[in-house]
Design brief:
Blueprint lengths: L2 E10 L2 E11 L4 E5 L6 H8 L9 E4 L2 E2 L5 H6 L2 E4 L11 H8 L9 H11 L1 H5 L10 H13 L5 E5 L7 H16 L3 E6 L2 H7 L2 E6 L2 E7 H6 L1 H15 L1
Parallel strand pairs: 3-8, 3-9, 6-7, 7-8
Antiparallel strand pairs: 1-2, 1-4, 4-5, 9-10
Length: about 240
């Protein structure tokens, strides 16, 4: 198994946020985790990244337990998160933001080559390479966040609400980029409120409600599921009209 969580419980003090979450991802897949705001999606990603500790539960990556590891050690193993809100460095240039993504890499001589590869995939970043990150539009900042993450050469890339706050033209481009990144061999865990777009790009999906997995299956099956339609796809249709 490439990646899995087993019986993951996480609490903020006395408030239980995750209740025994078990999830698996095969190498090369795009798997999405959908759910309403407050369902525990970001908590789940933060736990995988080492920012929160499961009590109890285990996280296994390539046959090795990584729960309890420090965040930078998890990143070095190839598990990389793009956080909600992008969290780029607004006072650093696009170039500097990208180079920060390769901070933990040992092959520093290859960083410039990697950056050029990213510029091929994100041409707008090449045009903006000397601009401060904070001057970019929301869509451009999302591209920068994705480029910065790719500079670390992730094996598992986790995206937290990548379409949030973006204009429709950028939403479409972001999901196209997710597919392109996956085709290059990067396994992806996609956390999204935009269930329609997420399920259309993923092979499999999980539905998280109040900290528990209530449904899982192949994406097309979830898209046709009446409960998913009513609780998630219907909500989005109203928001888009």
């Amino acid at each position: 198994m490439f990646f899995q969580t087993n019986n993951l419980h996480v609490a903020y003090g006395k408030i239980q946020a995750l209740h025994g979450v078990s999830l698996r991802i095969e190498e090369g897949e795009i798997v999405t985790l959908i759910g309403a705001n407050g369902a525990g999606k970001s908590t789940f990603l933060k736990t995988i990244s080492g920012l929160l500790k499961p009590r109890p539960g285990e996280i296994i990556f390539r046959g090795e337990r990584i729960d309890g590891r420090l965040p930078h050690l998890i990143t070095q193993k190839g598990v990389v998160q793009i956080p909600e809100g992008r969290r780029i460095f607004p006072l650093l240039t696009v170039n500097e933001n990208l180079m920060m993504g390769g901070f933990f890499r040992n092959d520093k001589n290859n960083l410039l080559k990697e950056k050029e590869t990213i510029f091929e995939g994100f041409p707008i970043l090449k045009d903006r390479q000397n601009q401060l990150g904070g001057t970019l539009s929301g869509g451009e900042q999302q591209m920068l966040a994705m480029g910065r993450a790719l500079m670390s050469r992730p094996s598992l890339l986790m995206l937290d609400e990548p379409s949030m706050g973006l204009a429709p033209v950028y939403v479409h481009r972001v999901f196209e980029m997710i597919k392109e990144i996956n085709k290059k061999g990067v396994t992806i865990l996609l956390v999204e409120q935009n269930a329609q777009a997420a399920l259309n790009v993923a092979q499999r999906g999980y539905v998280l409600e109040t900290g528990s997995i209530v449904m899982e299956g192949d994406s097309q099956g979830l898209l046709l599921n009446d409960r998913v339609k009513q609780c998630y796809l219907g909500i989005e249709e109203k928001l888009l009209t």
